[in-house]
Amino acid sequence: TWLRSLMGQYLSFEQATEDALVYTCNRLGLDLDARTQAILCEEYLKLSPYPETPAALATLQAMGLPLAILSNGSVHSIHRVVSHSGLQDRFAHLISVENVAVFKPHRTVYELGEQTFGVARDRIL
User: Fold this and answer.
1) What is the pLDDT of residues 76-119, one digit of tens each?
2) For residue 80, what is the enclosing H or E element?
């Protein structure tokens, strides 16, 4: 994704991920039929958070910190992943790069956090 950002060739993170899967399988000489590809891409949206994540998020919330996710994923995929994790009530904001059409680590992406919270970057963790 960072190469696409450098070249100004944005496409959805989901498509970039799918392209990477196909490329990797081709390079490794692995067969990847359409059904398996679809299953793998679907399962990618169901990854579980690390076991310590719920407690860590609860601790941050108890400190009064508003929480957000800033993701290369689309709004749709972020919602699916967070919903599947059961952590949707933890986040005040789910921020996607799709509105600025570049990926991390482009500066514009991180400016989304500043805009969303209305604070300077040195106030965001």
Assistant:
1) 999 999 999 999 999 999 999 998 999 888 899 999 999 999 99
2) helix 75-85
Buried b (16+ CB within 10 A) or exposed e, 51-65: eeeeeebeeeeeeee
CA gap 71, 79 in Å, rounded: 11
Q: Which domains does the chain have, with CATH numbers?
A: 2-123 (3.40.50.1000)
pLDDT in tens, 2-55: 676 677 778 888 888 899 999 999 999 999 999 999 999 999 999 999 999 999
> Are 20 and 44 contacting, i.e. CB atoms less than 8 angstroms apart?
no
